[in-house]
Amino acid sequence: KQEVTQIPAALSVPEGENLVLNCSFTDSAIYNLQWFRQDPGKGLTSLLLIQSSQREQTSGRLNASLDKSSGRSTLYIAASQPGDSATYLCAVRGGGTASKLTFGTGTRLQVTL
Amino acid sequence: GAVVSQHPSRVICKSGTSVKIECRSLDFQATTMFWYRQFPKQSLMLMATSNEGSKATYEQGVEKDKFLINHASLTLSTLTVTSAHPEDSSFYICSAATGTGGGGYTFGSGTRLTVV
Asked: Which of A47, B24, B56, B97 could lock onto A35 through a cystine, CB 3.0 to 4.6 A?
């Protein structure tokens, strides 16, 4: 059974700092890995999608890496802003058509002024 | 990009009544949709996989008679919470595979259900 863990559970940083969120998974036989952002009381917004054959993806200030063999992914946020404050979730998708996602426990990020 | 629309965003109902939540894929067809439940400050828990034209597949521990799922078309899946009780109060979110872009999933905006 796939298990996904995110560290740290919560993080508070001053504006402007670069930060790294970590995600680890137990079964390396994944199809892809997706990073999401969730604001309080809202749905999920997809940030980055990494295929199992890829090592990283970038979008603006965000960079996600994937090391499938070691079961790890990181989300790097450059020059953090207060608007980045949210919960960040990673989710891995197993093989097979329309297979389900397994979510991590999430990292609650607060960027202070 | 692919959009999943979920309604209502909030609903308050009396104990013993039923509530229907709709999940629509607006610009793509979704053969499969997923329904999740989220408790405060916790991650998403998959409840069931909704398949167009066939019965839903429920995760272990989820009561299929309480959480009725119907996926009658390629763009609409519904979740009905039957005979709701206060312990069913939660945040419910649906998602669908977009079918393009490498197999990512798009999520609805969620429904906050409060049973009083």
From this structure: A47
